[in-house]
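FIELD: query
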Amino acid sequence: MAKILVVDDDQAILDMIGMILTKDGHLVTKINNPLEINMEEVHLYDLILLDIMMPKIDGFVLCSKIRKLVDCPVLFLTAKTGEDSLVTGLSLGADDYICKPFGVMELRARIAAHLRREHREHSVRMVVGRVCFYPSLKKMMVDDKEVPFTKSEYEICELLARNRGQVFSKEYILEQIFGFDSESNDSTITTHIKNIRTKLSDYNYMPVKTVWGIGYKWEK
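FIELD: result
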């Protein structure tokens, strides 16, 4: 199951796409007014479908705004098939386009192909907002710039980011990162968190929050 956002001012098309993708087991959010998109939540979607020709704000402008916030596939729904239009869309960060009118099988196949590719890519990376994690390399990037973390600092960030919004105690983090038989204590985690925040401050980014009396979380 994937979380898919569909934005189109044509309610009939919106309902048809929603029905098709829901039958395929996906969780679909339908929006017919592009100005109603909650930009703080777009990173939660696995794939986004955008109509190009919409009132108030077109798909090109919307794509450029969304692409700054997400790394998931963005596909255009378009009746415009001119080469210039397609080049413009792809240059703004779209991954692909589906021309209207389209068939049910084509829609399903294109969506499935992009979701499969995304799954393969995320097996070696994880994107959370402005951050991209590379677990096999123990490397974290903020806005395409590597943060000079130690291995332990990286692992703490990855643990929190994978479970963003969930609060973990110092004891739990200590056990997960250093093991049950570690001779380290809670102050080790406190120090690591301090170092993480110091390094992230250089990027004007501070997702690790303290929940007083409980522990730490990666803010959603």
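FIELD: remark
The chain has a mean pLDDT of 87.
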